[in-house]
Amino acid sequence: ANCDRWFEFSCTINDICIENYQRCDGKNDCIDGSDEEQTMCRAIECYAEHVKCQNGLQCVDLRDICDGDNDCADQSDEDENFCKANKCPEYFVKCKDDLQCVHVLELCNGRRGCRDGSDENKDFCNETKCGDQFLKCKDDLQCVFSSHMCNGYSNCRDKSDEVEEFCKETKRSFSDFLGYRKMERRLQS
Fold first, then answer.
1. pLDDT tens string 157-170
2. Its GO biological process terms (predicted)?
3. pTM above the 0.85 mark?
């Protein structure tokens, strides 16, 4: 098969391409099972936002660890020590119980992402930083993509991302931030 080696995996026998994230996920996506071959699975790095189960044979989505469902064949994704040892990738934060990672967009959005409910706790949301591609809503709880602010659609639960004076203030602070980043890059050159 003519698979894109950066994004796809070529099954050994039936000459089809599957997405790279489907390798070593615990499911035979290739008829011959070549996408779950143990030597390969032990050697590969997991796809972004995925972690390797303790047996080293399977990659699971970071959001699926310590969620109450066994996703790893060895059930290590529900082991508290395993969950606590995993670090969250950029734009994710650990729940207060230190077991799960949730995306900053899931903070105080009205839907529980953490089993302990901490992602809906106002104090927890308030003290969490969003990251450089996001801005906080006026209530200081929710994170929203900065590109989604003042776009004619309410992304914040408090609708502050569409309030005129907030939009003026946000655009000014965001352009100040971008100007600072440009100056910072020039200084590093």
1. 899 888 887 777 76
2. receptor-mediated endocytosis
3. no
